[in-house]
Structures are given as structure tokens and as C-alpha cells.
UniProtKB/TrEMBL annotation:
Signal peptide: none annotated. SMART domains: Fn3_like. SUPFAM superfamilies: (Trans)glycosidases (SSF51445), Beta-D-glucan exohydrolase, C-terminal domain (SSF52279). Pfam families: Fn3-like (PF14310), Glyco_hydro_3 (PF00933), Glyco_hydro_3_C (PF01915). GO terms for biological process: carbohydrate metabolic process. This is Beta-glucosidase. The keyword Hydrolase applies. Its EC number is 3.2.1.21. GO terms for molecular function: beta-glucosidase activity. It comes from Streptomyces lividans 1326.
Amino acid sequence: MNADVTVDHTAEVSPWNDTTASVAARVDALIDAMTLREKTAQLYGVWVGASDEGGEVAPHQHDMEEAVDLDALLPTGLGQLTRPFGTVPVDPALGALSLARTQARITATNRFGIPALAHDECLAGFAAWGATAYPVPLSWGATFDPDTVGRMASAIGRDMRAVGVHQGLAPVLDVVRDARWGRVEETIGEDPYLVGTIGTAYVRGLESAGIVATLKHFVGYSASRAGRNLAPSSMGPRERADILLPPFEMAIREGGARSVMNAYTDTDGVPSAADEELLTGLLRDTWGFDGTVVADYFAIAFLKTLHGVAAEWADAAGLALRAGVDVELPGVKTYGAPLAEAVADGRVPETLVDRALRRTLTQKARLGLLDPDWNPLPAALEGADLDDPAALRGRIDLDSPANRALARTVAEEAVVLLSNDGTLPLARPRRIALLGPNADEAVAVLGCYSFPQHIGVRYPGTPHGIELPTLRVALAAEFPDARITFARGTGVDDGDLTGLPEAVRVAREADIALVVLGDRAGLFGRGTSGEGCDVETLALPGAQQRLLDALLDLGTPLVTVLLAGRPYSLGRAVEESAAIVQSFFPGEEGTHAIAGVLSGRVNPSGRLPVGVPRGPGSQPATYLGAKLAHAGEVSSIDPTPAFPFGHGLSYTRFDWTDLSVDDQEAPTDGEFTLTFTVRNTGGRSGTEVVQLYLHDPVASVVQPVQRLVGYARVDLEPGEARRLRVTVPADLASFTGRDGRRVVEPGALELRLAASSADPRLTARVALTGVERHLDHTRRLRSVVEQEPAARARAE
């Protein structure tokens, strides 16, 4: 190993490096030995970019930051390295060497030899050049498959660890409240149970690979007014407690997440970064969370610049530290000199610094960063000639065949067939018209936190680093005997209609027309979906609806395909399109998945994690509304979706029969057990997604008409049947009562086994008996679904 990545392990072992001692004793010894400036240095990071030549990382400048002088900073230490791979395009092996050399310098420069904790984004895969671009989280929700999402997260985590990263900023556990919000693509859906179970599986997978999972954004970001990014939140305490908080609670209790990131928004005038009741009272004192709270980028500075609750940087630092924010990200703005000066002159107690420091050092100790034999060089580079960058290039593969196979599995499970008049699957068409702005666009499958769309757009001419076949290419491979004619028609959002006549002509001459519409992911208005790309209505961007309507006027059967980051109103297409296929930014293997659904090679099994609106202006609306939030005679606005939450079609048919309930009454601390049979009555294998909804007809506070409390994917061959047994704890009927405490009330309930939120198949009418019961954070959080082995149905 070269000297520039070598850490001296010959010195006498200090108490904080003694692995025979408890973590707490090691951390206490280290804190006792540190000066104030050494303490605060562990509470901030530096935004850097790795070197594509294998040299040390270089500080990344942002308009919120002043220039960073590493020579001045490093002698006191450094808490975090921000996005070494997610800032500039860099070969993974050379980026790993660059990070290792920087870590060696950091440990050699500070007197305790403490390395930095390196974090990066992993919202839809490791956001590094050349890393697999998996489907976005909204597609994870569409799979209704926690196990596969967990396997994907494990793969992402292994790739991150392979290059020296310790922490991933994912998953997003915000529950969609308004689909106009630009970050809908980053969410898992509009139901807290779905978000919680899928998100928890992702956390488990990431943590199993040794990566610290960071839950975001805590809490209320998705409830901002009018769907505007960073806008104040209008949520009340029950919406917060019953819809927005449960996914975070599940991911902490069941997933073991070791980090939480605060939300940018304020709730009733209190910014999350300064909310002590939230970040300390609830998160730590009630839920028992013992990890680190990290600031969303610049969130502490925003207390001064955007929220106006702090006059100076030191005031902002004091508010955040007191609330419970342990680490300032992405750089050093308030927790550096301003915080140290505020502690020195008595404005901020040093005990608050020590509290945050203890949490950050505990995390580093548990990651092995304080161990005497810690090595900055990742295993993938051991034995390599580190002085020959050209030989290292390509040594680490972050887009392996196994990764791509997993990405395709997730993409295939996430494709949702919204409607079909029998046109799909396509039966060897001779002439296919392929139309629309996303039909021949490589990056149409990527969300805004993919590397090509997040970083690569700033480096024009740089290759994507991964293969991104367009749908045009995938269809040519899927239908090799067909003549495919392409016409763009219009752009995603340019409003240009000059290509419309050509698109109409091409469609008129074809046997089948496919129009591929949707979004272009970007940041802060540079796209139609993504962070800061909020919209006023859910009409298709640009002139896409004009193109769609013109094609519907023809006699050629039209299949509408969506590559999008949010659901859109589709106008006439809901009734007039021969079929509609919805995909939410399905990643690098997404076009193969869509082509497979169109040909029938893949039997679609995706289900909507968000409803598709009938009209463009009925937001905000989700299926989780109370009775007055649904259609009725008291309003001329009908928010009923064109396609509801949980909806999705298959190329086979399923029957649900033989429901039995063990006991129709249970005490308020008991449970119900339901058994029923699902049978594949069609001619091909397929997957049914069984969903369980709870309806509480009478409660002491207004409740949603129904809410998801369980689900399962059921794989069946033609003619096969499977008996399912579902155990539903009474705890899942709980809600926040009038006194602010969670309660289970006695009374009648309906448990609806359904194919979607609008398609109940079997209903169990049950009742809770006994006394009203109050619950705490130890309550049961999920149903249990057990599947008996499939049995061949008897011939009729």
C-alpha cells in the first residue's frame, strides 16, 4: 500500500481506540480530550468532489458557502465528507482511491486520527457515475414488494461500501399529499402503510450492507401548501401523527435506521430544524432513536435566511443544536466558527455540543472508524498499483450484470397496466407507429437524483456511464419482425406543434400506434418533475395532451405509455385509448420492462402507489380522504380519480372466494384472523396483489373512508389456488383521539379484501369489544399475511 493511503498503527493505542472497551467509554474518553474547536469540527462536513485522477478530493463551491480552506480546517478534524462521488463524474476505482487518500490526510492531520464519515445520495441507486440507475421510489411503491426492494437496497449498499462510503441519504418517507409537488417521484406513494413497509425494507437492505440509512424528510415536507417546494405546511396534529409520522416510526423501530434528516418546512410557524419537540421529544425521548440527526442541506442556515427565526449564524446554530440536529450538512456554515464563538461567550451551552458530539462519535465508533486497524483503502483496491491510475480505471464495476438483472426485476414489477381493451399484449404487429417526446429519449427513464440527470447535465459531453436503451431500441429488440416508424410529435414541455402532422401521418399508416408521454426529470425548474419542479395542475406538460388528442381522433388503435415522475390527468385517453401503461421513471432497465409488458413477455403486476386524477385541477386529493373529501352533492368538484390507489390490471384473471373469519369479535387489545382463497382462473401465470383496507364507520374523530392495513403479492400458475391467512391486530384500528393520544375504540369495523382501493372483493364485518384502549409507540405496526402452498384447482 502506498504511503499516501497508509495510516500509522504503530503508535500506542489511545483509550478511544481500545476495542476491548465499551463504545460509550471510548467516546467519553475522546470527548474529554478534545478542545471546543475539535468538538465542533466533528459536527460539520465539507462538500467535495473526488478526483478522476485518483488525487485528493477538491472542495465543491456552492452559492450558500464561502471558499473552504482544507489546510486550515483539517488540523481540528472533520466530521463529514459530502458527496465525494455525487458531485463530479469520476471513475469508481479512481474515486475510491481519491477518497482513501483524502481520508489518510484527514486522519494524519488531526491529533486523534479520526477519519471523516463519507455520505452520498442513493435515492434510486448510488448516485455515482457508472452506478446502476434503479427505478425511482414511486416505482418501488408500485411493486408492492418489500422483499425485492430490500434486495435492491442491499445491492446499492454493497456498491457504496465498495468505494468507501458510509452513509446513504435515503429513503424518502414523505407520504404524498399533493401530486403537484415536484418530489413526488422520490416518494413511495400516498399511503403511510405502503410507504412504511416498503421504506423499512429499503432501510433493512441498506443497513445490512453496513451503510447508515438516513430517513428523510422529518417531517411534513410533502404536506407543503399548494405542492410548492419548501412552502409552509398546513398539516394539523392528527394528519401529522396518523399519516406522516408512521413510516418514520416503522423504519426506526423495525428497520433499524441510524440517521434522520430534518425537513425544510415549518409547521404552524416552527421550522423542523428548530423543533425540539419533534427532534428530541418525539424522535428520541418517545421513540428511543439513538442515531444521528443530520441537517438537510443548508437547513440550519435557512433558519436565518428563509424562516427568519435567527438573526445571526450563531443563533441558527444554537436553535438547531438545541432542537437536536447533530450534524450540519453539506458544509461548514453555522456549526464552525459561529457555533464555537457562541459557546465561548456563553450563548450556547457546551453541553449541547457534547450531546451532538457523543452521537456522531458513537456512530463513527460503531462503523469501526475509531479502531486502531482502520484502513481507508477499500477492499476492492487492495493489491492494486495505486500509482498507475490508468490501470485502476474500470477496476470497480458499479453496474454489474447482477445489478442490472435486479433493476429489471424491480422495473418489471413496477409497470402498471391501467386500462386494456384487449389490444395488449400485442400480437406480432407488422407496422408500429412510435410517437411522442419520450419514445426515443435515453434519459426519459431516470429521476432527478440519478447521476446523469442530477450531475451529468452539468458536464455536457460526458458519457452517461451506463447503458440507457431508449424505448425505440427496446421495441426493436422485442418486435424484430415489425417495421417501427418514429415521429416525435412534440417535446416534453416546449409546446411545439410543428411535428404534429407528421405524427398523425405515421400513426394513420400503422397497425398500432404507441405514444410515449410524460416527464423530463430535473432540478429547480430545469425539468417537469423533480426537486423544485412543482406544477400548477396535473395536465400533461407542454403540448402533450394536444398530441394525444390528435392521435385519438384517428382510427388506429392507440396505446398510451407514460414515463413520468407523477400521475397526470389523461383526458379523453382514459376512455378512448386502447390501453394505458404507466411507468414511474423505471431506471436503466425500464424500457426493456415496458417492451416486455407490451409484447406479453411480462405479465404486468404493478399497482398504483398514487391515484391517477380524472381532471387536472382537483388537487390536493388522495384516497385517504374522509367522506366529505370524496364526491358528493355539496361541491361541484369531483375528485374521484380516473384510476384509484392500488389499481392495476393483469393478462390473466383471479377469483377471490371462501372468506372465513375465526372470530367476528375481538377485544381492543386482540386481533382478527381472516382466511380466503385466491385462484388464477386465466390462461397464463400471473401475480395478484391482495390488499386489505380498514373501514371504521363511527369514530370519535373523523377518519378516512378506508386505509390500507395489509397487502401481499400472490404468484399463481393457471388453475392454481392459494389459501391466504391474514392476522390483523386491533392496534391497526388505532388513531389519534381528541386528547392527542393514540386510541383503539370499541365498535364495528369492516376489513375489505380488495384488488384496489375502489375494488373490494371480500368484506369481513367485525367488531372490537371491551374498553377504550390507549396505545404508545410499542404498538403493533403491521398485519401478517401467510400463504399456504399453491394447489391445483379441481377441474370443473
